[in-house]
Structures are given as structure tokens and as C-alpha cells.
Design goal:
The complex is a heterodimer of chains A (124) and B (169). Chain A contains 3 helices and 7 strands; from the N terminus they run H-E-E-E-E-E-H-E-E-H. Chain A is α+β, with helices and mostly antiparallel strands. In chain A, the strands form 2 sheets. Chain A has a 4-stranded antiparallel sheet. In chain A, strands 3-4-5 form a 3-stranded antiparallel sheet. Chain A is extended, with a radius of gyration of 18 Å. Chain A starts with a helix and ends with a helix. The relative contact order of chain A is 0.19. Chain B has helices spanning 3-26, 42-51, 54-71, 75-99, 105-128, 137-165. The termini of chain B are close together. The chains are: A alpha+beta (124), B mainly alpha (169). The interface between A and B is large, with 36 and 36 residues.
Amino acid sequence: MLKKGDLLLVAVLLLLVAAGYFFASGRTNSSGGRIAVIKQGEEVIGTIDLEKVKEAQRITVSGDYTNVILVEKGRIRFETADCPDKVCVKTGWLTREGNIAVCLPNRVIVKIQGENDEIDAVIG
Amino acid sequence: MKGTKRLVWLALLVAQALVLSIVESWIPVPVAIPGVKLGLANIITIVVIVFFGWKEALSVVFMRVALASFFGGGLIIFLFSIAGGILSACVMAFLYRKFSRIFGILGISIAGAVSHNLGQIMVATVIMKDIAVTAYLPILLVSGIIMGCFVGLCGNFLIEALRKTGYFT
């Protein structure tokens, strides 16, 4: 049942995972503020500077489904959603740069970028 | 195996795969990451690849995904599942046909689980139009390895048990 190639496959995959983490950790810089970007498909719905949020506010995103996004000072999350899996709500608060939460059925993504994160903005 | 008998077996296997994917949706997964799931229906895909062939495996996967998204899902969920399902069935069938001397059922299942996740991430990147979703890739690789091991073990037991019945060769 277990052959040599199986172990080799697992080893190669684990190596890829390690490389992925290494690559990801090298990309995040801890400088400056945090900008939350809310997108639905290609359309940018909102860009919020999380440091400057004074009062909690709710943003409703509609489409095939409806998501309610809650913004507080320094953090953002999907509060409620009527999609079937609710993965976006279970993701919880996003606080750090590089954090993302997605609602695939409604094509909504919330991500936190650094203040000078121009490269990400171009690709996105 | 030919004709009506083969058709009945394949229909039964589609039904079983469908039940497995429904049962799976009742089992809570502790991590909130899109695409992390058990992939129990893959057990059936492996069995079909071993006892029937790649064409049958592709049609069983297509039927299962179509019916599953009909019962609960929708168009976007269908696109995700079909991309992952077809890619993983192709990869597993290819490995089984060409490289079964190198890879056992366990390795084939792991490759299937990982390629399922890769297919989903590719569709997610296209649908979301955002490269940021690839951040989920490492964790999806890990979950693919773990779930692939489990599914491969189940598939292996099932294949041995089915061989003993004498219906399949």
C-alpha cells in the first residue's frame, strides 16, 4: 500500500509548504498603519484606515448573498452572512497586515494591507 | 464488466459519493479556511479509477458535483467543486495508470487531495480577481496531505474488501 514514491511525495509537498511560509514571512513588514480593503470581484467597495476608525461602523455588501462587515478601531471582520458555509464569519477578526477573509459565494474579500503596500495594490 | 451491470454499479457509486459529500458537510471542520474539508467523496473516485477507468471516474465526479451543488450550493460553489474534482480525478487516474509502481493508493490519494485544493485556489483567484487568496496555499497543502492520507487509507481498505467479493477484478 505504502510505496517509496508516497513518502517522496509527502516530503516534496512539505518542502513546498516550508518554502511558502518562508516566502510569506519575508513579505510582511510591520511598519506603519493598516489599511483594510474590501473588494467584491474587481470592484473595490471600500478602503478604510483602521487606525483612524473612531466609532464602530457596519458595511453591508450585497450580491448573490449579503455580508455585513463590522469595522472597529484597528480591526475588521465579517459579522454576519447568509451564505451557506459562513467561512467568512468564522474567520473572525482581522488585525494584522496580510490577514485576509473571503466569502467565496459572494466573491467578497477583505484584506489588510500596509500603508506603503503599493505592489499589492497594482496586482490586486 | 459491461452493459447494464456496469451502469448500475456506476450509478450506485455516484449515489454513495453524493451521500459521503452530504455527510461530510455535517462534520464541522475546526479551521475557517475556504477549501479545507475532508474530501470523503474522493474514496469513491479512487475506487472507480481502480476498478473502472479514468473516463468512468470523470463522469462519476461530474455527476456527484453537479448533483451536490444542485442540492445545496449554487453556480459559484459548482465552479469551485468541479475545478477541484476534475483536476484531482485526472491527476489520480494519471498516476494510477502510469506510475502505480512508484505510488501506492495512499500517495495517489494525497496527490488527488492536494490537486483538488490547487484547482480550487486557481478558480478562486479567477473569481475573486485577487491574488491574495493564494495566501491560503500552504495551509491547504498541509490539509491536503492529512486528508489525503485518511482518504487513501479508507480507499485502500475498500478496494481490498471489494476485491474479495469477486464482483470486481
